[in-house]
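Render this sequence as a predicted structure.
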Amino acid sequence: MALVITKKVRTILLIVLTVLVVGAGGFLIWRVTQEESVAPQDSEAAPAGDVGPKSQLTCEGILVDLGHAVHPCCTECRYGQWVCGTNCMTGHCDNDPNQPLREDSCPNTRNFTINQENLVEGIYSIKGLIGRGHYVTQGQTNENFSLTINGGRIGDKVISTNLNTEKIYTEGVGDYWEGVGPLGEFLLSEGIANTVIMSHEYDCTTTPTAESVHLYKLCLEQVNVCNKGTAILPDPKNEYGTLEDPVLTIQTDDVDGIGEVTTAKLNGEDIPSCQSQDGASCYNISGTNIHISVAPGLQEIPAGEYSIEVAWTDGKGIGGSNCTTQASFEVAAAEIAADPACGTLVGSYSHDTTDWPDGTFCLIGDSEPPNPDFPSMGGSTTWTCSNGEGTEVSCTATRGDVDDPACGSLVGNYSSDTTGWPTGTFCSIGDPEPPNPEFPSQGGSTTWTCSNGEGTDVSCSATRGNITQAPTVPQTGIFDTVLGRVSVGVSFIFLGGLVSQYSKFNYLLNSISERHQFRSEIKKQRKAKRRREKLEENFD
């Protein structure tokens, strides 16, 4: 089926085509003839791709990455911390009244902070990785901007970006440049956020270009910091050498000297300058040192435990953790000198000892002379021990003379069955000759001499008994002969028989006794009868 375009359709198509051509031509004429007003991504040029700087910052000090400022018109942009000149931005983002103002995305002043953990208070030379963008193509121009940290900078505060930069790219009619350059010397503090104010001093009112400046990274290199101090504490025994008063010293060796002491505490209490107070604990500055008088006017610090805390600034006003010292010390009570006492070397030594053994001349105190000579043979050495307070004690060591020789424990009489020397010595004093005498033979003797080496000898001897027969033992007991033993046996048999016949024997004895009594009674009766008869005869 053939496509049929009616006259009405052709008219409509022609009208639509005419509107499109006229509209496109009109927009092109408007775009070319309008007053220059740039969008943020055209004006605040940044590295291609909006991912960060292309250049590198070599740093031997502390490298600080400043991150990036919030861009209300371009959420994916990473322009670092950046500013534009005054009146360089007008209108809204994308010319849309519902979007933020352009001057909000690129202000002429921006504040941010730096706070590095390893930052020590001091003066730092700072160099930065800087970018700059222009709406129109141009060479390197001086785009002055101001950078202050903590309200100041050492030297001129105006920084020129007329650096040794290189053009990174050209986008449309704008160029973007990057480079590394010095920003000056600044006094930075530690432990706090250092406030940085970056402002652009270019006015776009008369020359409407972007003129943006970008700051990506900083390199902080120490120029001057406070030197650390070393605490020289008092001697714990209250010995201070040539010091007039008991003091402790904080030695800094800082070439800039000491500016002022900002904190001085002793045992937690503030102490003043010695110029403002006398007679109490105080401090004073002497060159590169700080002296703290703990007890002015006294020759000894009172016994006890002490702690100090001192903070200061150097001659350039720099302080910080380097210029802080804390220390503690203890002072012992003064010791009362003890009475001197002789040491272990006092005593008597044998004649063959020739030098001092290990030991001390004085247990308490010092010896005089410091190293006495060892006594000669038969002599003595005397020294004194002093406690330094006027108390002394005399000490003496003696050495024996050569002794007369004497026989040893092997002298004596030995039985015939002893065959060798027992444990012992031939000489208790002196040396034997011969050195090892032979043991005596049975019935014989051995003789040797003991000599002291000085011409004095003594003779020593040992004897050994001979073999003898066993002695005859006399027979003096009843069991020594056969007859005695038989007699005893018979006696025991007889005694046994008597015991076995005891009842009969006892009856026999009783019968004999009764018979004897009966006879005696008969005799008595007869005798009484005769007396009676005789008496009767006498009465008749």
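Summary. The radius of gyration is 66 Å. Residues 502-539 form the longest helix (38 residues).
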